[in-house]
From TrEMBL:
Source organism superkingdom: Bacteria
Entry protein name: Phosphoribosylglycinamide formyltransferase
Species this chain originates from: Taklimakanibacter albus
EC class: transferase
Keyword Transferase: yes
Enzyme Commission designation: 2.1.2.2
Keyword vocabulary terms for this entry: Transferase
Amino acid sequence: MGARRKTGILISGRGSNMQALVKAARDPAYPAEIVVVVSNRPSAAGLAFAQAEGIATEVVDHKAHASREAFDDALDAALKRHGVELVACAGFMRIMTEGFVGRWRDRMINIHPSLLPAYKGLHTHERALADKITRHGCSVHFVRSDVDDGPLIAQASVPVLRADTPETLAARVLDAEHKIYPRALALVASGAIRVDGEKLTPAKSGLRLPLTIP
């Protein structure tokens, strides 16, 4: 096995997807090593989980910076202090500048609670229910400057039930997120996929992209 890719995770709250990645990375054979968890909110509950796991944590408070550019520079510096090679956004509620996204192009991924390109942005579950769709889900993608845009790495779908509320649908999607995000990060960290502009290609035959979980 080659060297594990040093990965930083960005959170703003409890970081349940961060926890799923950390648990997957406990396996020495997992191709990513979680070296730091960074939050823009000092009160983020996920920081305590990371600390209990023996993972370094950093707080880069967006309120302490005069501009988005200054915040992103501080965030970039925090990641580089820990030798981060890959970045995984896990409920990180900040829109990043083009400069930051460019610095981490093809090395930063995000998970979004919809089957992209449907329902970009917020309130995805409410919008899905309003449209009376029968399948909903989540997507992992490489980050681009446009919100919730970029090449799709993996998707998981769940049924939408007639009795669903936004809360019950969100819970079902979150379970799928916890399963798919570790698999998507492993694809990236292991070099199993290549990024060519806005397209992904498998490094070896037999892998269909985006990876899909019913």
